[in-house]
């Protein structure tokens, strides 16, 4: 019990304590109405709206099944990206794509496909204290079958600069405890400059570096929560959507800011671990 709890706490590290507090409030209240312990103040995504979305699932020996651990994004037929802090080399994982209501069983959601990972590429400068370079590339044993609900996401172009833009993050968020969470959540967030968010990492082992991307909610408190780690932050340019960041951590309380491993800053890592063609 203690162990699985501390493992869960690793997800979206800084927000978690506060999140558990919120969760307690939710559990403590019957009639809690619209309170959703997923992405803070997000809304339901439409089925197939984020076809690149991955549920990175860890095998639970006691329950003899896989359970959602983190989000991720499809890069191409054989590769997905997620956050390194989601990964424990001793555990077994699967990659689920095409999911919408994560509480359903695989057979009840026909758009789902499951893939077996065969290699985990950890960033050479990954630091688990500061959570810098929190990006993991996963190679799959078999190629993903693309369709209208399952598609790759373009990586951030090397000349992209989304600072000031409104982008969107999606995730299944917290899925522990007794709360019924299910539908993929989304929320819009504004990308801010590293100067603006660097104080979030000060005096703390958690660090903003030049490979980070940060967002702020536009008005009300919004953002990612425990379990959204690894999910992609998506921005838009003339050619459409592209992945700009991988959810890593955020300041407290939840919904007051988010920090991502930047995709553009990690293009060499992503592309060089990914054979071309
Ligand atoms: C999601 O799936 C679960 C399990 O089948 C079901 O109980 C729940 O009502 C579904 N949620 C929605 C919003 O459809």
Automatic annotation (TrEMBL):
Keywords: Disulfide bond, Hydrolase, Protease, Serine protease, Signal. Residues 39-270 form the Peptidase S1 domain. One of its GO terms (biological process) is proteolysis. Residues 1-32 form the signal peptide. One of its GO terms (molecular function) is serine-type endopeptidase activity. The keyword Phosphoprotein does not apply. InterPro entries: Trypsin_dom, TRYPSIN_HIS, TRYPSIN_SER. PANTHER family: ACROSIN-RELATED, HYALIN. This is Peptidase S1 domain-containing protein.
